[in-house]
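Why do we bother with a discrete structure alphabet at all? Because it lets us treat a fold like text: something you can write down, compare, and reason about line by line. To make this less abstract, here is a complete entry for Carboxypeptidase. Read it the way you would read a sentence in a foreign language you are learning: slowly, and without expecting to understand everything at once.
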Amino acid sequence: MKKFIFFTVLSLFLVLDSHHVRAAPRALLVKSLPGFVGSFPSNHYAGYVTLKGESELNFYYYFVTSEGNPSKDPVVLWLNGGPGCSSFDGFVYEHGPFNFEAGKGGLPTLHLNPYSWSKVSNIIYLDSPVGVGFSYSNDTSSYVTGDKKTAEDTHNFLLKWFEQYPEFVNNPFYIAGESYAGVYVPTLASNVVQGIKKGVKPVIQFQGYMVGNGVTDHQIDGNALVPFAHGMGLISDYMFEQAKTYCKDNFYDPSTRNCSKAIQNIDAAIDGLNIYDILEPCYHSPSNMDKAKDSSIPVSFQQLGQTSRPLTVRKRIYGRAWPFRAPVRDGLVPLWPQIMAESNAVGVPCINDAVATTWLNNDAVRKAIHASPKAGPWELCTGQIFYDHDAGSMIPYHKNLTSQGYRALIYSGDHDMCVPFTGSKAWTSSLGYKVVDGWRPWISKGQVAGYTEGYANNFTFLTVKGSGHTVPEYKPQEALDFYSRWLAGKRV
């Protein structure tokens, strides 16, 4: 009798386990990758979720299951910014399962990444909005989009994705991203929460979100650069005091000639720096522009922002040199409205993405990861989308989400000049939440890795010492440390 019960239970377990394995679409399993020798430490899936409406939207994702306990560990959606940049940026250069070693005249060699975020979570790398990376539509009018439509489309993607992967629907779910994903993340989170309240199925087990060096509020972000430059010793006390006097602490929108001149002097002083990490070298002068091209910076980057479309603004702001290609109108205001438009700085990015470009445009790689030929050549950041920043400041979104009990971690590499930590610190303080964990260092590898402050409503601000704009790229072990602690609900 005992044997019968044992085998009955065992049979039931095997049936359930078999169902668990079959739930994920087996045709989308990534079995091998060119450049990598060995077995993956967890399952990988890749493919498309298609949304049908006025136009057919084909959203591409790469899904890495957790190396720990995939049936219990959180599912995290990762979004890179731009707008217009592929989330393969995060996969290749930041916290994906592999480190990529550049090949000599061939494909890069892949090694397992000891600091992959898949060590502690399931993670979805999504190319969004459509028109970015491998996501595409046969109707290019779909490439005209904005904050609100992107949030709506990505929410619909998630609902269909969980239908494809029902075994993960009960896992805790988080949304994470960096740079312009400072807009993507809270707007998407708001849509997810609204869907939960309306009883939309499947019910996503949304727990919270995290944003790294994220765009949040034009005015606060715009006013952050001058104090950052002064605090970092990039401008003199005299230049700082002059700007404060003439601009009355409104550096964002110079309203007088003297203020404009003071800001221009500051801009000239910092023009030769890498805005994504002031400690790293950069190419700006015309002579160095040729050197940058010789070092294999992709043509897609060299051409970012170039357009013949009338009545457009083209700015190199918010993330990896993205083109703000939208009709000039109220609300489309960059960090440096006049200065960047009038400066003589050459718009050559301070990064080299040849490895990702080479690997992801290889036919064998694209076949292995189920990327459609209809998507066209892969570019880290595309110039083909037309994007409207129509959601305004993100501060009301953050207040709304955190006041409902959703957890939030705002982290910031403290040497990023693109979206400086001074702005992130200012807006997090502006929420008016009570400080429950006073400003203190946090530790990684036995050393001070940055500073953190905890607020009521499960809201945390954190800096990463010595890091630039893309924190996991500059400080991979430190990033995995705060990521894993925060997901586990531990004190960072």
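What the structure line is telling us, in plain words: The CA atoms of residues 197 and 203 lie 9 Å apart. DSSP finds 17 helices and 15 strands in the chain.
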